[in-house]
Automatic annotation (TrEMBL):
<dbReference type="InterPro" id="IPR005225">
    <property type="entry name" value="Small_GTP-bd"/>
</dbReference>
<keyword id="KW-0342">GTP-binding</keyword>
<keyword id="KW-0378">Hydrolase</keyword>
<dbReference type="InterPro" id="IPR001806">
    <property type="entry name" value="Small_GTPase"/>
</dbReference>
<keyword id="KW-0547">Nucleotide-binding</keyword>
<protein>
    <recommendedName>
        <fullName>small monomeric GTPase</fullName>
        <ecNumber>3.6.5.2</ecNumber>
    </recommendedName>
</protein>
<comment type="similarity">
    <text>Belongs to the small GTPase superfamily. Ras family.</text>
</comment>
<dbReference type="Pfam" id="PF00071">
    <property type="entry name" value="Ras"/>
</dbReference>
<dbReference type="InterPro" id="IPR051065">
    <property type="entry name" value="Ras-related_GTPase"/>
</dbReference>
<dbReference type="InterPro" id="IPR027417">
    <property type="entry name" value="P-loop_NTPase"/>
</dbReference>
<dbReference type="GO" id="GO:0003925">
    <property type="term" value="F:G protein activity"/>
</dbReference>
<dbReference type="GO" id="GO:0005525">
    <property type="term" value="F:GTP binding"/>
</dbReference>
């Protein structure tokens, strides 16, 4: 079972123009250690589940097709530094690079949920002026219900309060849930790009109207 909450959006990403050129999307994965970020990434890339990983930070490329359109995913599986402040784990370089972010915690580890809460706050503060890239919060390890310390409701409430998407999944048990996370984030990225493009066009139209009026006078 996959638990999902979508953030508020003004229109569906499916209303984008019909051009079929390949689209790139930079996805940044954040979260504490041992929450399953790498397992989530590799599950999406290969459909296989691998449970054990070393301390390796990697950027992967993966080509996919969504709605008949070729998508090139660049996925930065970031490393959470030991003995550091949560805010130090997210740099300006991270935020400038990412088109969308996936913040992962383990439903069995309350401290990892607290890390995600602080990371959401840090991202929102850092991007106040330039706009926040779409974020999806993922509660992983849903297969370990007997060890749960973070309820589904807490995850939903955090996502709703920050206007983020939310999924609760098991990367170990199902590929489909992982696929939904990445595809939903791409839809949000596509929508954000459309809104930004529309905003720029609106500004250009306003400026043209002002100067056009002045010439007429």
């Amino acid at each position: 079972m996959v638990v999902q909450v979508k953030p508020n959006t003004s229109h569906s990403g499916k209303t984008m123009d019909g051009t079929q050129q390949k689209v790139e999307a930079n996805i940044l994965l954040l979260g504490a250690e041992n929450v399953g970020k790498s397992a989530l990434t590799v599950r999406f890339l290969t459909r296989r589940f691998i449970g054990e990983y070393g301390d390796i930070e990697s950027i992967y490329n993966h080509n996919d097709k969504i709605g008949g359109r070729e998508i090139s995913f660049n996925i930065w599986d970031s490393l959470y530094p030991q003995n550091c402040e949560t805010t130090e784990s997210i740099t300006e370089k991270h935020l400038q690079w990412a088109d969308g972010l996936i913040l992962v915690y383990s439903i069995c580890d309350r401290s990892s949920f607290d890390v995600v809460r602080q990371q959401v706050h840090r991202i929102k503060q850092a991007k106040k002026t330039s706009g926040v890239s779409p974020i999806i919060i993922v509660g992983n390890k849903r297969d370990l219900q007997h060890r749960r310390t973070v309820s589904s409701e807490e995850g939903r409430l955090l996502a709703l309060s920050a206007d983020c998407g939310f999924f609760e999944i098991s990367a170990a048990e199902t590929y489909h849930g992982v696929l939904l996370v990445f595809h939903q984030l791409f839809d949000l990225i596509r929508e954000a790009r459309a809104l930004k493009k529309g905003g720029i066009k609106g500004i250009v139209r306003s400026v043209s109207a002002v100067f056009g009026r002045k010439r007429a006078e």
